[in-house]
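Lab notebook: predicted structure, single chain.

Context: the supervisor wants predicted structures on file for every construct in the current expression panel, including those that have not yet been purified. This is the next one on the list. No modifications to the sequence; it matches the entry in the shared construct table.
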Amino acid sequence: MRAESLCLNIPMMKSSRVQRCPSSPLTELEMSYEQRKQFFENLKILVKSEYEEIFRILKRNHEDFTENSNGIFFDVVTVSETTFEQFQEYMHFCLENRRAEEGRTKQLASLSEETNKYLVDGYCSDSA
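Prediction complete. Output recorded below exactly as produced.
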């Protein structure tokens, strides 16, 4: 397996799209499809090591996939509910880590800015 080219594929299930009134609640099937579609969209932001973990979950649960020179392909719609739940748990973990890292980065930038301002102001007041 070439991990750097791990690709995941989801078909657009046109036949499963149901015309419905915008105010009507989603059916269980539509909700499941929408969750899987959202998961697929989130897959696009993962990094190599995270893709590898998705592949490990896939293999651990004996799900079908194909492999070629372009990467690994599997159908998100057809994986078992158990596998999909594991995918969702892992995706939640990844997204939460990203949010936490962004928060720490912002906090660090703010502290750095405050420190620089303090140092500049401190040097200016000492030399006056």
